[in-house]
Structure formats: C-alpha cells, structure tokens
C-alpha cells in the first residue's frame, strides 16, 4: 500500500475513468474520513489545525475547480453514526458532486492551484477517502428511482 492509497486515485483508476464509455453526466459521491489533526509538512504556516479545517482550505480551491469544470455540489452532510458495517466503514462526511461528464471531472487538475491544494491541504486533511462514480441525469439534481 502506498502513502496515497485510499486518499487519491491510482493511475489505473484514473485511466479506467477516462476510458469509460459512453461518457456522460456523473455524480462523484465523496466519502471523507478526516485526521484528528492535519498532517502538514513540518514548518507549514498555520498547520496546527484539525483535518476538517485543512480540508476546508482545500475546498476553497476545489469548489472553484468544480464550477469551472461545469460541475455543482449537490449535497453535503456529516456522518453521525454507523448503522451497518465495521468501524473501518465510517466516514466523517459525504459530498455528492454532479459533473456533466467524466472528461469534465478529469479536468480538475488543470484548474490553477488545484493540484497544489490537493497536495498540501487535502493530503494533510484526509485519513481515508472513497469516491464512488455514479450515473447521473443531464441536469445537476439528485434523483430517485422511487419518485
């Protein structure tokens, strides 16, 4: 296991996402578990913060990148209690982000400052993350097959 496994996509995961056809609207369901204290590199100014606070620093740039990619944050909430599963399955936060396409999602790294925010703030913040790619409709809304 690498230091970034469970935090960032592997090259194989990125390639599979780019190769998925047909390319169409998607929702990235982000599951985040934060470090109690951010793990910034030694000497980072203002680095003595919680993992959640470090993630919010990343989020300032991430929201701009998502918007530029044509995406939209649909829903975000805190995890409160695990009803099914083991302690390893618990996440502190769930965020649903709609994108017009997988190709749009893959442009996030092109936004000025995004990669730097990932490498500094997101890596300091996250203990574990999962991102599930889900099919979505053409409009940025959450929907249900049950009405």
Textual characterization of the structure:
With 147 residues, the protein is α+β, with helices and mostly antiparallel strands. It has a single domain, classed as Alpha-Beta Plaits (2-Layer Sandwich). The protein has four helices and four strands, in the order αβαββααβ. It has helices spanning 11-19, 51-68, 102-105, 114-125, and strands at residues 26-34, 72-78, 93-99, 126-135. It has a four-stranded antiparallel beta sheet. Helix 2 runs antiparallel to helix 4 (114-125). 20% of the residues are buried.
Summarize the structure in short.
This protein has 147 residues and is of the alpha+beta class. Helices cover 29% and strands 22% of the residues. The longest helix has 18 residues, at 51-68.
